[in-house]
Design goal:
Layout lengths: L1 H12 L4 H16 L9 E15 L3 E7 L7 E6 L16 E10 L11 E12 L15 H6 L8
Parallel strand pairs: 3-5
Antiparallel strand pairs: 1-2, 1-4, 2-3, 4-5
Length: 158
């Protein structure tokens, strides 16, 4: 019996992963479908350690797509200049390891139909490990065929 208690402690001590956030949101949506709660009122605070897949900056907003390997889904993080103290210190974080804290809400984006159901409104972000080469072809969203022809070691065997 004591091994179950040890396993329970280990499982509950694991850090929150993106898959856990999606699962919690899906439970919320199921509950809203049976009219217990409103799906649009979902808001929970989470902390994540993750990698940056994509980084887009605008004048007052930064959009960061992050992943942690727990799921194939990305999570979009929205950083607002008005609510984030170190907003001006954030440069291109593509490929970096970061620690983020924020509220998960139902996505305000128009791309909800494309699979982005939730997003994080960032309240704190700390870069942990940065990638020095901002021109790395590995960090690009999609590698062009000409690039693969010039870097044959990146091609997969068919």
């Amino acid at each position: 019996m004591q091994t179950n208690n040890i396993m329970d402690k280990i499982v509950t001590s694991l850090p929150i992963q993106i898959i856990d956030i999606y699962n919690d949101y899906n439970k919320h949506v199921v509950a809203s479908n049976i009219n217990v709660i409103n799906a649009n009122e979902y808001s929970k605070e989470y902390e994540l350690n993750c990698w940056v897949r994509d980084f887009r900056s605008q004048s007052n907003l930064i959009f960061i797509n992050v992943y942690d390997g727990s799921t194939s889904y990305n999570l979009q993080v929205v950083c607002n200049k008005d609510t984030l103290n170190n907003f001006n210190d954030l440069e291109n974080l593509r490929g970096a390891t970061i620690f983020i804290k924020g509220n998960i809400i139902k996505s305000l984006s128009k791309s909800v139909s494309e699979g982005q159901e939730i997003e994080m409104q960032c309240t704190y972000i700390k870069p942990i490990g940065l990638v020095n080469d901002s021109n790395s072809i590995i960090l690009a969203k999609k590698i062009q065929l000409d690039t693969l022809r010039n870097h044959q070691h990146l091609r997969t065997d068919l």
